[in-house]
Structures are given as structure tokens and as C-alpha cells.
Design goal:
The protein has a domain of about 55 residues. The protein is about 80% helix and about 0% strand.
Length: about 120
């Protein structure tokens, strides 16, 4: 190396380090909430609940009547996004177990009372 190139070597190295410092993206650290950690596991559980619903015999018969095989339904459930599965699973929780909601039950009772009053 020549003496002039050795004299400019510190400047060159300084410029290289400065360019690395300026163009290197900075790292960010953020807190991760419990919801973000549990969301994939919850989505898998909800997807399994919806798939279990399709496997039921009465639901499978209804799907066959509509022209959808249980295998097609399973494939469609697998293709759904997590948000769609979450919506369906939420509706499953809201459905009444006995077939009538509270409002429908009150209407039936009121109709029965009106019929009894009219007959008497």
C-alpha cells in the first residue's frame, strides 16, 4: 500500500461505518398481548367445533338434502378465514339448545293464553 492510500484508509472505514449506521433499520421491541398469543389456538378450537357440527348425523342429512356432501362441507370449513370461523362459532353459542329463543317462548305462551281466554 502506498502512503497516500494508508492516509485515506481511516476516512474510508469511517464512511463505511457511517453508511451502515444510517441505512441499517432499527429494531423495535413491543409487548405481545395474551390475545395475540391465544388467537391461533382459539381459531383452531373454533374450527374444530364447526367441523364437529358438520359431522353430526342430523346436520349431515340436512347438508345432503341441500346437495352438499359432508366432505365438501369439511373442505369449505378448512378454506374459511379465522374471522369467518369465529363468526360461525359465535352464532353456534347464541343458538338456543331447545329450538326456541326466549322471545319465541314468550310469544308461544301469549298465544296459548289468548286461545284459552277466547275458548272460555
Amino acid at each position: 500500500m502506498t502512503p497516500t492510500s494508508i492516509r485515506y484508509l481511516p476516512y474510508f472505514l469511517g464512511a463505511c461505518l457511517l453508511s451502515l449506521a444510517l441505512f441499517h433499520p432499527s429494531a423495535r421491541a413491543e409487548l405481545i398481548g395474551t390475545e395475540q398469543i391465544l388467537a391461533p389456538a382459539q381459531a383452531d378450537q373454533e374450527r374444530e367445533r364447526v367441523k364437529a357440527l358438520v359431522v353430526r348425523e342430523d346436520v349431515a342429512k340436512q347438508l345432503q338434502m341441500l346437495g352438499i356432501s359432508p366432505e365438501q362441507a369439511q373442505g369449505r370449513i378448512a378454506a374459511m378465514t379465522d374471522a369467518e370461523v369465529h363468526t360461525i362459532a359465535g352464532k353456534l353459542d347464541a343458538l338456543p339448545a331447545g329450538g326456541l329463543s326466549d322471545f319465541q317462548f314468550v310469544i308461544v305462551i301469549l298465544l296459548v293464553v289468548i286461545v284459552v281466554i277466547l275458548l272460555v
